Amino acid sequence: MIRRKMMMRRERRNPPKKLDDSKKDDDEKRKKEREEALRKRREAEEKAKAEADEAKAKMDELARKRKESAQKKIDDEQKRKQEEEEKRKKSLEEKKLAEQKANEEAEAARKKALEEQKEVDTGVKKFVLEDERPKDVKEDLPTQFEKLEKTKLEEMPAKQPKEEETKTPETKKEPMSLMKKKMEEEKEKAKKLAEEKKLKEDEEKKKKEDEAKKRRDELLAKKKDEEGKKKDVKEEPPKKLDDSKKDDDEKRKKEREEALKKRREAEEKEDEEKKKKENEAKKRRDELLAKKKDEEGKKKDVKEELQRNSMIRRKMMMRRERRNVKKP
Q1: Do 31 and 299 contact (CB within 8 A), yes or no?
Q2: Distance of alpha carbon 276 from alpha carbon 272, whole angstroms
Q3: In a domain, 240, yes or no
Q4: In a domain, 236, yes or no
Q5: Contact status, residue 29 vs residue 298, Cβ threshold 8 Å
Q6: Which of 74, 113, 236, 323 meets the CB 3.0–4.6 Å disulfide criterion with 205?
Q7: Per-residue pLDDT reduced to its tens digit, 96-122
Q8: Which domain of life, per UniProt (predicted)?
Q9: How far apart are CA 60 and CA 191, in angstroms?
Q10: Looking at the 3D structure of the chain, how many domains does it have?
């Protein structure tokens, strides 16, 4: 018993040496493998961290670009609205000037028509007064005959007096009645011409007045429409002035929809890439954790094996000691 206790004390003070060099080589190999696994794990962790930082930087850059593009779109929209407002104001000013010019032209045409009508009225009145004046044959005929004779004498050649001398008294009376008839015919012609002129001027005047009235009505209608648009500007967007404006608005609307569609597609693509990268990072983390668990399990197995071997060696030593004690 005493000897056995002494042997155990010695064993505690001096642990037993390795059984062979192969075991030592295996331990060195396992140690190197563990160090290599730790080094690879650190490298994988550093690589995963660098990739995560790179993905984060890319996402931040994309978010910044999206923000800048959204701000640019807002600025462009505000600029477009401002330009449209300026164009609308300019068109309103041009319409006002055109309306003022049309009113001035209509007023000038009206004044001119009134002056022309006044002249026509005075001429017609003069003819009417001459026609309606009571005819005194005793007073009118001599004066008219004198005038006609005077004009006729001025127009007649120098040989005319000889012919008049040869004429009988009956032939001398005939020119007087012919002259009277001619005067009446000329008066009728003048009256008809005056009536025709008056009718023509009345038609022209009426036509000008109708045109001026039509322009005034159109301008008033436009003015009313513009006032209605101004009143409803808060409730409804202003109507487009022409088809080209409408086409431009449709084109801008389509461009905005296309831009929104592209932005949504880009965002969806970014989200997919982000999810893909996150899944890859998660997969790498899971692989690293699995490797770590495997290494820990291997370490545990190695430790258990070492403990088992040490226990076996200890038992073998104890058996040897017992055998040595039993020997005389």
Answers
A1: no
A2: 6
A3: no
A4: no
A5: no
A6: 113
A7: 898 888 888 888 888 888 887 777 767
A8: Eukaryota
A9: 98
A10: 1
Q: Residue 300: enclosing H or E segment and its boundaries? A: helix 243-326
Q: How far apart are CA 38 and CA 32, in angstroms?
A: 10
Mean predicted lDDT score pLDDT of the chain: 76
Tokens of 98: 């055109």
Using one digit for the tens of pLDDT, what is the confidence trace for 264-294? 888 888 888 888 888 888 888 888 888 888 8
Which domain, by its residues, includes 192?
A: 2-133+167-230+275-326
Assess if residue 257 is contained within a domain.
Answer: no
4/322 Cα distance (integer angstroms): 8
**What SS3 state is found at 19?**
coil
Cα–Cα distance measured from residue 69 to residue 266, given in angstroms and rounded to the nearest whole number: 12
pTM: 0.26
Residue with tokens 């026509």: 120
Quick one: tokens of 100? Answer: 């003022």
Helix, strand, or coil (residue 256) = helix
pLDDT-derived band of residue 16, with 50, 70 and 90 as boundaries? low
